[in-house]
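Q: Given only this backbone (536 positions), what sequence would you predict?
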């Protein structure tokens, strides 16, 4: 593939080949030298190839920082410290979009992931496994297919017509072309359906975080939702629900602290305690697929602190987005704080319990851990960017992260990429769109999400109800912009993004539905790859 992303790697391959042809001159052979041609021969190397597929998704170019850098401020609920990001001021030459081989770019990280998945799918089949381990081999291949489907999903929703690459490209002169929407959606479905047949429902503790059957079905349902194929979306999302593998984390007692903790534990690195009651945090029953982070410094510090997924095991989210220890780049709008309904009267909450897990106000303390230097210290408006909103982004940044080295590197908090609550809300939406929720099952699942928060159940499922509930439940999870886009593309649009406050004047219909394909990638493909129609 003659793109900037892996062009260097291909040149290295060529150099190896040239030196191999000059053995008679050097009369020297390297012993024990491993290449992609001789490394993949053992079960251990198959596991390494599989594990490598997960690395780019947590990298700096995706969910280690850059995805949030784009899609926190891209919606109408969060503002950026400087105007460029929230005003959608990017183009085909923006380095953070890609095409420069950087690990800090969306396109580059996505196709690095595709490359690794293709490598696993090519190199693992010839490896001889012990007969008893043959199911393990098939699982490795299923994991690689899931990850490739996941990377293609983000390639599609971000760039519209990116290439579908299904092999390891070794010739530096080889070029690729755009896929049609139909082609890339078809490939996503093919990869995920193949993975579903093999992946387990869950893993032991040593393998937690790997792709599961539920994750593949959830992503399939989501892919069909984006295509407006409501019947298929409902089928695959229902498979997740009917698996009985997942459940919403619910309050263990009728107190306001319990209702807040039941939701908030989904965004903290460690369990939350309310008295003797414990709310499990990472990889709990509500997690369908999450990106595994840790504060392990063995691989990175002091030179890898800026390289999640490459030089360290943690993300850079606290470094960029926590107003207390980081650069205070983002904060919610005052309007975002106002979307939360009045809380349950019986719990003496002024607002929906989810408000207290999503939004920092001056009533908050930064940590409840007596060993923390932030113990009982108040959140103050100075921790937010100078936008005059008076609130801060709390989800994922409470309690305030303290690094084991130089704060706030190596943020260990896992990013929950697919939550069960999202599955239930997508199911409700598909059911409404399919036949106006004729069987009432969509309303049931919507109300499950509301009941977990202690909020009154709804008596009717409507577009406004779905929009509002996703706004509240999934606030700050970098989903809203993509929701706004897909709702704007409905035959009868549910929303008009260009009319929304904070998007008005910046969002251009027919342009900002997708990002531009990097110009350097187009140039490298010598005309075979062209810009998507939104940015021509």
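A: Predicted residues:
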């Amino acid at each position: 593939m003659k793109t900037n992303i892996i062009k260097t790697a291909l040149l290295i391959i060529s150099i190896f080949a040239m030196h191999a042809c000059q053995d008679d001159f050097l009369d020297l052979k390297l012993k024990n030298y491993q290449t992609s041609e001789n490394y993949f021969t053992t079960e251990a190397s198959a596991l390494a190839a599989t594990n490598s597929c997960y690395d780019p998704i947590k990298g700096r170019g995706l969910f280690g920082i850059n995805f949030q850098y784009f899609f926190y401020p891209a919606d109408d609920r969060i503002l950026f410290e400087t105007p460029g990001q929230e005003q959608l001021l990017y183009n085909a030459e923006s380095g953070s979009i890609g095409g420069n081989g950087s690990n800090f770019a969306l396109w580059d990280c996505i196709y690095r992931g595709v490359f690794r998945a293709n490598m696993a799918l090519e190199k693992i089949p010839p490896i001889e496994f012990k007969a008893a381990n043959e199911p393990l081999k098939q699982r490795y291949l299923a994991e690689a297919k899931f990850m490739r489907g996941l990377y293609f999903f983000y390639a599609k929703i971000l760039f519209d017509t990116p290439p579908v690459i299904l092999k390891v490209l070794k010739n530096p002169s080889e070029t690729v072309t755009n896929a049609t929407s139909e082609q890339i959606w078809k490939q996503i479905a093919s990869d995920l359906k193949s993975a579903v047949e093999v992946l387990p429902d869950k893993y032991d503790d040593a393998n937690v975080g790997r792709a599961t059957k539920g994750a593949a079905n959830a992503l399939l349902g989501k892919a069909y939702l984006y295509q407006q194929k409501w019947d298929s979306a409902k089928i695959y999302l229902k498979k997740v629900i009917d698996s009985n593998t997942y459940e919403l984390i619910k309050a263990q007692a009728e107190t306001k602290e319990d209702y807040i903790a039941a939701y908030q534990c989904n965004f903290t690195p460690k369990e939350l305690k309310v008295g003797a009651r414990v709310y499990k945090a990472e990889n709990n029953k509500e997690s369908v697929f999450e990106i595994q982070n840790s504060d392990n410094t063995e691989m990175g510090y002091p030179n890898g602190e800026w390289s999640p997924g490459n030089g360290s095991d943690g993300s850079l989210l606290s470094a960029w987005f926590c107003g207390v220890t980081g650069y205070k780049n983002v904060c919610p709008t005052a309007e975002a704080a106002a979307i939360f309904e009045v809380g349950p009267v019986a719990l003496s909450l002024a607002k929906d319990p989810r408000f207290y897990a999503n939004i920092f106000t001056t009533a908050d303390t930064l940590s409840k851990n007596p060993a923390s230097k932030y113990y009982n210290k108040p959140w103050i408006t100075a921790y937010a960017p100078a936008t005059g909103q008076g609130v801060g982004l709390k989800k994922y940044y409470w309690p305030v992260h303290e690094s084991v080295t130089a704060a706030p590197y190596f943020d260990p908090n896992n990013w929950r990429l697919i939550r069960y609550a999202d599955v239930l809300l997508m199911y409700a939406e598909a059911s409404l769109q399919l036949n106006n929720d004729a069987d009432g099952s969509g309303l049931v699942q919507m109300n499950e999400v509301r009941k977990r928060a202690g909020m009154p159940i709804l008596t009717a499922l409507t577009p406004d109800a779905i929009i509002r509930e996703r706004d509240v439940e999934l606030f700050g999870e970098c989903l809203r912009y993509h929701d706004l886009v897909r709702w704007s593309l409905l035959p009868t649009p549910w929303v008009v993004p260009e009319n929304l406050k904070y998007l008005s004047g910046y969002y251009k219909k027919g342009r900002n539905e997708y990002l531009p394909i990097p110009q350097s990638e187009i140039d490298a493909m010598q005309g075979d790859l062209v810009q998507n129609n939104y940015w021509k």
